[in-house]
C-alpha cells in the first residue's frame, strides 16, 4: 500500500515538485532569516566572546549590556580581588574612542584596554594575523582587527607602523588580529589599559569592567554572588553577560519584531504553497483514494498513506531548504570581506525550521485527510 | 528517476551540508589562557591592595634652603652618601659680594670706635692750654688796672671805675671758658658715645656672620639619620641616592614638594599598601601576607607588618597619568619585605595579598 502512496505522489511530477518547492522555500526563508537574526544578535556580544581568558565580568550595577559602559573607581578592582573565591581579577577598558585618520577624517573606534601586566583578554595566538602580542607593550602600540583594517585602509595589505591620532596622541598599529564581527561595525583597537586611558579624553573614572576568574573548585555563579554581595557591583559569567546583552537588544530594538515578521511570512507562504498544492494534489487523486476505499482499505491505513506522503515531501523539502540556507550563509560569509557578516547557523535554527516544516506539512495533510476520510467510495463510479 | 532518486538524494546532500555548516558554526574554542597569569592569592579570605616599594626611611625628598641657580651637584644616582655630605651647591657670587660690603661696614665701625678710644688728639691740647695762659694773663692785667684806679681814690671817675670792674669780670669769665674748653678736650670721648660705637661694631659683626651662614646654606647636605632605632634593620648609616632631579645651571626654588634629590636608606625595603576605605573594616594590624611584582606572578615576597598610617588619605590613582586623579580614600599600611632579594626597585608597584582569615 505504501508503494501505491509513493506512486501516487510522484505520479504527477509538476505537482510533486510544486509541493517540495513550497516546503523548501519556506524552510529556506525561515532558516536564512533566523540565521541572519541570530547572527545579528550574536554580533552584539562579539566583544564578550572576543575577550577570553576570564570567567566573570564585573561591572557597575546599572550596566545593561556590553556597550553600556559606566566607569567605576579604580579601587573596585582591589575590592573584587578581596572577595572569597576570586582567584584573580584584572582591569579592562572597553569603550568608544575617536581617531583622526591621515586624510583628516574622524572615525569612531572600539577601544579595548588590557591590563598592562597580564594582557588578560588579548586575542589568542591563533587569532593574531600579524605581529606579536608582546608588541602591545611598545609605546603607543595598538592592534587593529582585520575588518577594521579594511574599513580604514581598504585593500591595502597590512603593514605595521601605520599611525592614527587619538586624543592628540599617536597610536601606532603594530599588529592585526581576527575578531568576531561586531554589531557597531567600528574598527576594534586593542592596547594596554594605561595606553587606552591616554587615548581618551580626560575622565575621572576609566575602569569600565573588571575581568575575574573564580577558583576552579567553585561554581562561577557562586563566585558572582559573592562578588555582588561583598562589593555591591554586578558580576556575571560570560554566558550570563552574553544573554543579558542579547536580551537588551531584544527588548530595546525593533530587530526581533522585523525579523519575526519575515520569519512568519516565510511560514505563511510555505503553509500556503505547500498546503494548497498538497490539497489540490489530493483532490486530483480523489478517484484513486475512492478506489482504495471501495477496495476496503481502512481509514487508518489511508491516514497512514497520506502521512507518509507528507513526511516524504517534508523531508526532501526541508533538506533542500535548510541546505539552501546553509549555502547562502557559506557564500555570504565568504563574499563579504569589507564588512563583518551577520550570520549564525546554530542547531537551534535547524530544529526550529524543522518544527515549522512539521507544522506546515501536518496542516497540509490534515486538510487532505479530511477530504479523503469523508469521501464516499462511490465517487469512483461517477 | 529524477523524482524517485535524485530529488531525495539532493535533499539528503543539502541536509548533510546544512548539518556540517551547523557543526562548524557551533564549534567552541577551548578556553583561552591569559598571556601572563595574573597574580593569584592562595588565601581563602583575603584582602587585596596595591603597594609601592619604598626605602625604610621612606623617600627623603631633599629641598633647598634658598632659591637660586645650581652651581654644582656632588652626587650621582646610585651613590651612597653619609649624613652631612654636601649634595649640591647654589651660585654664591651675590652673597660673596654682600659679604665684602658687610666686612667693610664692620671695619668702618671698628675704626670709629678706635678713634673714640684714642681721643683727645694730643695736638689739640697746647693751643687750649696757651689760651688758658693768655686768659690768666689777661685777668691779671685787668685786675692790676682796676687796683691802680682804686688807689687814686676820688680822683678816679665813676665811669672809668665801673668799666674796669666789668673788664675784670669779663676776663674772669673768659678764663673760666678757656679752662672748661681745655677740660673738655682733656677728658677725651664720652663713655656713652663709645658704647654706641661698640654696639655698631657688634651689629656689623653679626651681619658679617649672617652672610657667612647664608653662604653655608647655599650648600645642601645629606640630613642626619634620625629615626626609630627599632625599625632600623642594620647599623648602616648611609643613604642611597635614588633620584637626582637637579643639574648645574638649573634654577631651583623653595616650592614645597619639589624633590631635587631623593635619598633613602635601603636596609630592608618597605611596601606601602593602599587599602580601600570600604575594606578597612576587614583589615586588622598584623595580618600576614605576601607581595608580588606586577606581571610576574611566579615570584612572591613574604612581608611582615610594620605599622599603619593613622591618617586615611585620598588615593593617588596609579594609572600612569601625570595628572593625579583622586577618587577615593585609602588606608595606608606599611609592610616590610622579608627578603634580601634586590630584584625589587624603590617605587615599583606590587600586588599585595593579606590573609584576612588570620590575625583576629
Automatic annotation (TrEMBL), chain A:
<dbReference type="InterPro" id="IPR051125">
    <property type="entry name" value="ABC-4/HrtB_transporter"/>
</dbReference>
<dbReference type="Pfam" id="PF12704">
    <property type="entry name" value="MacB_PCD"/>
</dbReference>
<dbReference type="Pfam" id="PF02687">
    <property type="entry name" value="FtsX"/>
</dbReference>
<feature type="transmembrane region" description="Helical">
    <location>
        <begin position="302"/>
        <end position="332"/>
    </location>
</feature>
<dbReference type="InterPro" id="IPR025857">
    <property type="entry name" value="MacB_PCD"/>
</dbReference>
<keyword id="KW-0472">Membrane</keyword>
<keyword id="KW-1133">Transmembrane helix</keyword>
<feature type="domain" description="ABC3 transporter permease C-terminal">
    <location>
        <begin position="265"/>
        <end position="375"/>
    </location>
</feature>
<protein>
    <submittedName>
        <fullName>ABC transporter permease</fullName>
    </submittedName>
</protein>
<dbReference type="GO" id="GO:0005886">
    <property type="term" value="C:plasma membrane"/>
</dbReference>
<keyword id="KW-0813">Transport</keyword>
<feature type="transmembrane region" description="Helical">
    <location>
        <begin position="344"/>
        <end position="367"/>
    </location>
</feature>
<keyword id="KW-0812">Transmembrane</keyword>
<dbReference type="InterPro" id="IPR003838">
    <property type="entry name" value="ABC3_permease_C"/>
</dbReference>
<feature type="transmembrane region" description="Helical">
    <location>
        <begin position="257"/>
        <end position="282"/>
    </location>
</feature>
<keyword id="KW-1003">Cell membrane</keyword>
<feature type="domain" description="MacB-like periplasmic core">
    <location>
        <begin position="17"/>
        <end position="227"/>
    </location>
</feature>
<feature type="transmembrane region" description="Helical">
    <location>
        <begin position="16"/>
        <end position="40"/>
    </location>
</feature>
UniProtKB/TrEMBL annotation, chain B:
<dbReference type="InterPro" id="IPR050465">
    <property type="entry name" value="UPF0194_transport"/>
</dbReference>
<feature type="signal peptide">
    <location>
        <begin position="1"/>
        <end position="18"/>
    </location>
</feature>
<keyword id="KW-0175">Coiled coil</keyword>
<protein>
    <submittedName>
        <fullName>Multidrug transporter</fullName>
    </submittedName>
</protein>
<dbReference type="GO" id="GO:0030313">
    <property type="term" value="C:cell envelope"/>
</dbReference>
<keyword id="KW-0732">Signal</keyword>
Amino acid at each position: 500500500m505504501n508503494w501505491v502512496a509513493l506512486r501516487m505522489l510522484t505520479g504527477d511530477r509538476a505537482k510533486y515538485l510544486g509541493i517540495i518547492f513550497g516546503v523548501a522555500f519556506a524552510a529556506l526563508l525561515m532558516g536564512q532569516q533566523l540565521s541572519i537574526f541570530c547572527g545579528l544578535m550574536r554580533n552584539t556580544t562579539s566583544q564578550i566572546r572576543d575577550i577570553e581568558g576570564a570567567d566573570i565580568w564585573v561591572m557597575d550595577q546599572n550596566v545593561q549590556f556590553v556597550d553600556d559602559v559606566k566607569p567605576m573607581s579604580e579601587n573596585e578592582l582591589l575590592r573584587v580581588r578581596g572577595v572569597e573565591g576570586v582567584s584573580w581579577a584584572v582591569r579592562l577598558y572597553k569603550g568608544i574612542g575617536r581617531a583622526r585618520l591621515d586624510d583628516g577624517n574622524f572615525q569612531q573606534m572600539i577601544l579595548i584596554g588590557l591590563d598592562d601586566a597580564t594582557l588578560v583578554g588579548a586575542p589568542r595566538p591563533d587569532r593574531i594575523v600579524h605581529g606579536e602580542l608582546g608588541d602591545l607593550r611598545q609605546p603607543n602600540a595598538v592592534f587593529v582587527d582585520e575588518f577594521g583594517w579594511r574599513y580604514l585602509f581598504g585593500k591595502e595589505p597590512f603593514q605595521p607602523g601605520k599611525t592614527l591620532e587619538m586624543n592628540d596622541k599617536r597610536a601606532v598599529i603594530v599588529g592585526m588580529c581576527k575578531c568576531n564581527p561586531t554589531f557597531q561595525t567600528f574598527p576594534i583597537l586593542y592596547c594596554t589599559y594605561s595606553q587606552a586611558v591616554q587615548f581618551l579624553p580626560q575622565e575621572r573614572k576609566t575602569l569600565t569592567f573588571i575581568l575575574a576568574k573564580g577558583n576552579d573548585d567553585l561554581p562561577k555563579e557562586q563566585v558572582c554572588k559573592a562578588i555582588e554581595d561583598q562589593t555591591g557591583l554586578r558580576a556575571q559569567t560570560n554566558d550570563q553577560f552574553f544573554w543579558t546583552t542579547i536580551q537588551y537588544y531584544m527588548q530595546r530594538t525593533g530587530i526581533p519584531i522585523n525579523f519575526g515578521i519575515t520569519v512568519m511570512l516565510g511560514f505563511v507562504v510555505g503553509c500556503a504553497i505547500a498546503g494548497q498544492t498538497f490539497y489540490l494534489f489530493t483532490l486530483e487523486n480523489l478517484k484513486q483514494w475512492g478506489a482504495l476505499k471501495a477496495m476496503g482499505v481502512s481509514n487508518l491505513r489511508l491516514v497512514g498513506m497520506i502521512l507518509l506522503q507528507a513526511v516524504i515531501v517534508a523531508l526532501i523539502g526541508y533538506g533542500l531548504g535548510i541546505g539552501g540556507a546553509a549555502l547562502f550563509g557559506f557564500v555570504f560569509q565568504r563574499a563579504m570581506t569589507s564588512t563583518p557578516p551577520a550570520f549564525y547557523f546554530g542547531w537551534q535554527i535547524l530544529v526550529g525550521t524543522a518544527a515549522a516544516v512539521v507544522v506546515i506539512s501536518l496542516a497540509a495533510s490534515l486538510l487532505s485527510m479530511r477530504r479523503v476520510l469523508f469521501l464516499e467510495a462511490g465517487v469512483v463510479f461517477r | 528517476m529524477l523524482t524517485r532518486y535524485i530529488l531525495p538524494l539532493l535533499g539528503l546532500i543539502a541536509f548533510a551540508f546544512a548539518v556540517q555548516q551547523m557543526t562548524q558554526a557551533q564549534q567552541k574554542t577551548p578556553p583561552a589562557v591569559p598571556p601572563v597569569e595574573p597574580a593569584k592569592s592562595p588565601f581563602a579570605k583575603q584582602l587585596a591592595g596595591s603597594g609601592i616599594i619604598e626605602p625604610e626611611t621612606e623617600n627623603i625628598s631633599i629641598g633647598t634652603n634658598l632659591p637660586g641657580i645650581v652651581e654644582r651637584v656632588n652626587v650621582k644616582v646610585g651613590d651612597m652618601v653619609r649624613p652631612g655630605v654636601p649634595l649640591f651647591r647654589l651660585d654664591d657670587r651675590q652673597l660673596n659680594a654682600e659679604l665684602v660690603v658687610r666686612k667693610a661696614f664692620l671695619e668702618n665701625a671698628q675704626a670709629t670706635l678706635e678713634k673714640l678710644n684714642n681721643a683727645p688728639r694730643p695736638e689739640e691740647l697746647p693751643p687750649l692750654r696757651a689760651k688758658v695762659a693768655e686768659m690768666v694773663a689777661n685777668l691779671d692785667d685787668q685786675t692790676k688796672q682796676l687796683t691802680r684806679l682804686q688807689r687814686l681814690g676820688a680822683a678816679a671817675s665813676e665811669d672809668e671805675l665801673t668799666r674796669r670792674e666789668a673788664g675784670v669780670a669779663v676776663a674772669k669769665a673768659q678764663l673760666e671758658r678757656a679752662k672748661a674748653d681745655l677740660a673738655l678736650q682733656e677728658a677725651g670721648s664720652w663713655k656713652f658715645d663709645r658704647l654706641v660705637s661698640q654696639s655698631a661694631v657688634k651689629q656689623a659683626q653679626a651681619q658679617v656672620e649672617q652672610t657667612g651662614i647664608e653662604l653655608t646654606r647655599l650648600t645642601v647636605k645629606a640630613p642626619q639619620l634620625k629615626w626609630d632605632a627599632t625599625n632600623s634593620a642594620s647599623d648602616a648609616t648611609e643613604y642611597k641616592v635614588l633620584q637626582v632631579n637637579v643639574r648645574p645651571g638649573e634654577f631651583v626654588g623653595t616650592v614645597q614638594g619639589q624633590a631635587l634629590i631623593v635619598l633613602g636608606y635601603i636596609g630592608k625595603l618597605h611596601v606601602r599598601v593602599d587599602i580601600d576605605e570600604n575594606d578597612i573594616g576587614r583589615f586588622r594590624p598584623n595580618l600576614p601576607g605576601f607581595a608580588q611584582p606586577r606581571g610576574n606572578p611566579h615570584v612572591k615576597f613574604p612581608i611582615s607588618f610594620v605599622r599603619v598610617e593613622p591618617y586615611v588619605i585620598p588615593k593617588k590613582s596609579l594609572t600612569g597619568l601625570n595628572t593625579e586623579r583622586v577618587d577615593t580614600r585609602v588606608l595606608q599600611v606599611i609592610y616590610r619585605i622579608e627578603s634580601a632579594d634586590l630584584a625589587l626597585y624603590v617605587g615599583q608597584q606590587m600586588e599585595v595579598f593579606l590573609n584576612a582569615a588570620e590575625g583576629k
